[in-house]
Amino acid sequence: MSSTAPRPSLAALALQLGGRFKALAAMISETRTMGRLWGLLGLYFAAKRLVLKSRAASSSSNEKNKLDPSEAEDASEALFDTLVAYAQVASLIVYQASENVAFLASKKVLPFAPATQGRLGLLSVRAWGLYVAMEGARLLVERGRRTVRDAEWAAAWDKSFYRNLAWAPLTVHWGSTTGGFLPDMAVSLLAFYPASGAMVDLWRSTA
Length: 207
Known about the structure:
Layout: H1 10-35, H2 39-62, H3 69-106, H4 114-145, H5 151-174, H6 184-206
């Protein structure tokens, strides 16, 4: 009788690997969630800067009597950018506030029932999904506008676009009330790519 242990099948190995990726992605996700607890403060300052910038732009445009065609086009692009920025900030505020309350309640810091935590979590994911959709559209518009694309800009755009693209199916999956449609392995890999990339960027910026 052979004493050699039977080798696990490829399916079993895939399940084990998927479980490890899922655990790693969950750990990274919780670390990032804790880091975002102060995110509302950053969003407050971002909203304040946006309001001041739009007021300054409005005052500047009121001082001009007529715009030539190129200036009119620039003004319409600036208006589009401003509206998208306001919508993105609003969606991020809803996302961050809902996530913070749900996360703190899950750690027994806030007295909310699990059902309330679930509703807040769903609202958070859907608000985030709205932001992801708007960011994808904004990046595509930005690419269409730009006539000169140097290597550095192209690399930064690709990184932003593909990371955002990886989040898109996850927001639909997590925002579903029927349990989602992605297998655990796909969820883990999709979440691992942008999350680990963001952590590498943070490490490089503080190194």
